[in-house]
Amino acid sequence: MEKRTDKNSYTILFAVLMVLVVGSILAYLATALKPKIDENKRFEKQQNILYAMGVNDNDEKSIAFIPTDKVEEMFTQYIKRQLIVQGDTAVDYKDAYLINIKKEASKAKEASYQRKLPLFVGEKDGEEFYIIPMRGKGLWDAIWGFVALDKNLVIKGVFFDHKGETPGLGANINQRFFMDDFSGEYIADGTTFKGVTVAKGNADPKNNDKTDYEVDAIAGATITGDGVSAMIKKDLKMYMPYLQTLKN
Amino acid sequence: MGLLSKKDTKLITDPLADNNPITIQVLGICSALAITAELEASIVMSIAVLFVLGVGNVVISLMRNIIPSKIRIIVQLIVVATLVIIVDLVLKAFAYELSKTLSVFVGLIITNCIIMGRFEAFALANGPWKSFLDGIGNSLGYAVILIIVGFFRELLGSGTLLGYQVLGDAIEKTGVYHYGYENNGFMLLAPMALITVGLIIWVQRSRNTELVED
């Protein structure tokens, strides 16, 4: 005799019920947790921006962000202005750090769209930092970061992160030994934009030469490294007209 | 043993050695290759699989009499995917840092053939308690191999363990690097993971010749 569970009608009924039950559980959870998740993402962004300008709890080797319960306060304390850059001018824009760069980049494919380029001006110990967000492609998925520059277009600090680079290889772009190398590098030769290249076969692995526009690559992570170089070149370049005006 | 009968104990200890999911059943190789360049990643992945396989086996086992056989594989997939998404959402809301470390693994857990394999081969035919033990046993067996491979790959490839430099500083030339030792970058690439797993299989089968197939 045919088993009850082999009948077509039972199979369909079971499938429908299962989808309904699982669907509602997931939908409920996703909606219920969304505010909390969004808040976490916002804090993370603030932490990253502050990290790039050197506001963090780092010691010798570690990476330590400002704790989430203090980050909002610190962010308003250190970030003096949030701007949108248009050509060689910039206008104030409330909560510019919440602008989704990914969406802006895809909207900008239409020629008529005026892309919003967020820029954050931080101040720490009397020194001014210009922090630029960027986003690019690694080997498997998206990579992004924040670069803090001073008036002379020298990098003061960076923060990089990634969605799914290979652990032990490309994933190391968010480690100190890689990020710290960028500090002090020039991004432009006079008025010519150069960017910073993540270079293999670099003759300067300890990175003593700060004007070669190069940092040492991570072995085994060529494509992620190239992605970082490309991201810096492409996204920083858009800010150049404005950054040039700061020098004077 | 008061808590576990002899049969139940075997469910946990068997997959650790003579019926190991990776070296004997040759399941879950893909994730064993992908994430073992670092010891920490191996450990995190092991814990994640332990949770999903333990809970998943119980859920499937409870449903085993009502799952229509024609669509059982899809039902199993839905159970794995749902569990993984729930874990991911909860972590994102309450342990954001941890969820970022885990993000790479979420996709890998769903596609881990050990999980589907145990659902299909064990949980569909056994009760919840036995299935739970089987899930724990198999994920521990998986964990043992992952951790061994991760240990050697990180040690020989980067000279570190859990991120701590144990062989000295490769750039400053301290520790063993002072004597001309170099990290073997090959260890960080996927082929060396396969070779390491191969070496473990070799050792295991030469110790227990019953495992050798003709």
**Largest inter-chain interface?**
A-B, 32 and 34 residues
Distance between the ends of chain A: 90 Å
Rg value of chain A: 23 Å
Written as H for each helix and E for each strand, in order along the chain, the element string of chain B is HHHHHHHEEH
**Number of helix segments of chain B?**
8
Low-confidence stretches of chain A: none
Poorly predicted sequence stretches spanning 5 or more consecutive residues of chain B: none
Q: Indicate the structural class of chain A.
A: alpha+beta
Helix fraction of chain B? 55-70%
Gap from first CA to last CA of chain B: 37 Å
Radius of gyration of chain B: 19 Å
Largest sheet of chain A: 6 strands, antiparallel
- Which strands sit side by side, in order, in the main sheet of chain A? 2-1-3-4-5-6
Classification by helices and strands of chain B: mainly alpha
Order of helices and strands of chain A: HHEEHEEEEHEEEEHH
List the helices and strands and how they pair.
The complex is a heterodimer of chains A (248) and B (214).
Chain A: H1 8-52, H2 68-78, E1 79-86, E2 89-92, H3 101-107, E3 117-124, E4 127-137, E5 142-149, E6 155-162, H4 176-179, E7 188-189, E8 192-193, E9 197-199, E10 214-216, H5 222-237, H6 240-246
Parallel strand pairs in A: 9-10
Antiparallel strand pairs in A: 1-2, 1-3, 3-4, 4-5, 5-6, 7-8
Helix pairs in contact in A: 1-2
Chain B: H1 6-13, H2 29-34, H3 39-62, H4 72-94, H5 96-110, H6 113-123, H7 128-158, E1 160-161, E2 164-165, H8 190-207
Helix pairs in contact in B: 1-7, 3-4, 3-5, 3-6, 3-7, 4-5, 4-6, 6-7, 7-8
